[in-house]
Design a protein that fits this description.
The complex is a heterodimer of chains A (392) and B (243). Chain A is mostly helical. Chain A has 15 helices and 4 strands. Helices cover 68% and strands 5% of the residues of chain A. In chain B, helix 8 crosses helix 9. Classes of the chains: A mainly alpha (392), B alpha/beta (243).
Chain lengths: 392, 243
Amino acid sequence: MKTILTVIRKEVLDNFRDRRTLLTAVVMGPMFGPLLFAVMINLSIEKSLSAGERDLDVPIIGAELAPNLMRFLESKGINAVDGPETVDEAIEAVKTGEQSVVVRIVPEFGEQLANAEPATVEVYSDEADNDARKEARRVRSALGEYSQRLSALRLMARGVSPQVLRSINIDEVDVSTPSGRSGLILGMMSYFFIFAMLIGGMYLAIDSTAGERERGSLEPLLSLPVTRDQLMLGKILASCVFMALSLALCIAAFVVAIGFLPLQKLGMTPNFGPVAAVGAFFILAPFMLLGAAMMTLVASFTKSYKEAQTWVSAVLFAPTLPIIVVSILQVRPAFELMFVPSLSQHLLLVDMVKNEPIVLENVIASAISTLLLGGLIAWIAAKLYRREGLLG
Amino acid sequence: MIRVQNITKNFGAVKAVRDVSFEAPDGKITGLLGPNGAGKSTTLRVLYTVIKPDSGSASIDGVDVVTDSLEARRRVGALPHGAGLYQHLTARENIAYYATLAGVPKAEIDGRVEKVIDELEIIEFADRQTKGFSQGQRTKVALARSLVHDPHNVILDEPTSGLDVTATRSLRDIIRKLKSNGRCVLFSSHIMQEVAALCDDIVIISHGKVAIQGTTERILERTGTDDLEDAFVAAIRRVGPAA
C-alpha cells in the first residue's frame, strides 16, 4: 500500500510539473466541452427564436388583387415584397434557394371570392430545405386562418353558426416539463464529462508507461524491490487522480456555463446546480478506474510515446458508441442497461438533469459493474506488465 | 557476492546467452567484457531480475534471482544501460523516490539521500530538475538512486558510455570507493582499457558464451599474449557464433 501511494505521489507531482500534461488536464479537457456546448446551445436558441419572431418577407405575385388578404398577412408579420413576376420565375427562384417561399394570387382570385367559390392561392417552396419548410408552414397557416375567417363570415351571413364547422375541439396538453426538454440537449453533457475525464488522465497514462520506457527509466524502476503489480496499480490510480481533477473542473465549468445560457427561452430549466454537480461527480466517478485502466493497458502495449498517443486517442471514442446508439434509439433507463459502462452513467445523468427520480438500485448497479470491469482491466494490465517484452 | 550458473536465454531464434557461469566476489570489481551484442546486458538483466533465464540459475548473496526475485532485488543496486531520470523531478527527488520504493525507512530517507549526494558529488545540481542535465550528471544521479538503499551488490551496465574523460574518471573513483566498502561490483563494458584499469577479475564473453575468465595476468598467461587487446581478440576467436 505504501508503495502504491509512493508511486501515485510521484506520478502526480511529475505530471503536475509537465506543462503539456497539466494544460491538457486542467484547461483543454475540462473547458472544451462547456465551451462547445455553450456555442451550440446559443446557436440553436438563436435559430429557433428568430424563426418564430422575425417578420417574414415573402414575394407575392398579384398582391394588388387581394388587398384585404395582404393586410391580414401583414398583421401576422408576413410582408409582401417584390420578387419574381411569373410562375416560371417563382419556381426558378425557389429552386435555386434565392427565395424560400413565393406566393401567387391567381388573376381570378377576386372573381372567385365574389362568387363564393374556393379562391386559389399558390405557395411555392422547397420542402427539402428545413428553413424554407418552416417559412412555408408559417405562410400556409396564416392563409388557413384567413380562409377560416372568411368561411365563418360567409356562414354567419347565411344565418348559420360557424360552430357547425367545428365538430371536434382539439385540446393539446403537453406534459413534458421544462426540465424534461432540457434532457434532450443536455444529454450530450455526459459525453463531454467522460471525454474531459479521459483527456485529463491520458497523458499521465501514456507518460507512466510508454513514456517511462522511452526515457529508459522503466528498467531501473523494475529492478527495485517492489512488485510490478504495485507499480502498475500506482500508475493507474495516479491517472485517476488527474481524471478526478479534470472531471471536477469540467462539471464546475458547466455549472457556470449553464448559468449564462438563456435556456429558459427554449423552455428548459435544467437541474444542474451545485447539488446536482456533486451528484454528477459521484455518478461518473466509478468510470475513472475503468478509463484509467483502459488507457494504461493500451499505452503499455505500445512501443513509443507517439504510438501510445494514437492508440489511446482511439480509447477516447469508445465510450461514445453506447451513448450514440441510445440517443438514436431513445432508450429509457432500465436496470439491465446499468451494466453497460458509460451508458449507465449517461442515462443516470440525463435523468438527474431532467429532474426525474433517480433509482438508487440503478446508481449502485452502475457503480459496481463499472468498478468491477475497471478492476478486471487493471488486473489484466498488471499481469501484462510482468511480460519481459515490456522492456522493448 | 553474485553467482551465475549455466544460464541460457533465447529471444525467439536468437541465442543471447549460452551456458554462462561466473562468480563476482565481495570486495572486488568484476568486469564483464565483450563486443557489442555479446550477451552482457542480457546476463546483467537476469541478475537484476527484469528477465528470467530459460535455464540455469543465478543468485545474489545466495538468494535465487528467479524464485525469490524480490529479496534478490533488495540486495542489488542496478544501473541499466542508458538509464533515464524523471525530467520534472529534481535530482534529489529522483533519488528519494527510489529510496522510498526500495523500502528505506521514512526517518532515514533524508539522511541516506544526503549521503549519496555527498559521496557522488551531486550537491551542486541536486535541487535542479533533471531536464537538461549532461550525460555525466545524469549517470551520477542514476547511480546515486540505485545506491541509495545501500545495496551490498552493485551491477552497472556500460556506465561510462557517453561520458567524457573527467566524468569517466570520477565514475571510476566512485566504483573503486564502492569496492573499498567491501561491496561486490559487477560492471560491463566493451572497452578493454577501462576493464583493465578497473577490474580485479575479468569475464570475457562473446556470442553469448564465456570465452575466458580470471585476473588480467591469468588471462594474458592463458592466451599467450602480453597485451590485453590481443588477449581479448584471441579469446573471442575461441567461441564461434551459435550453431
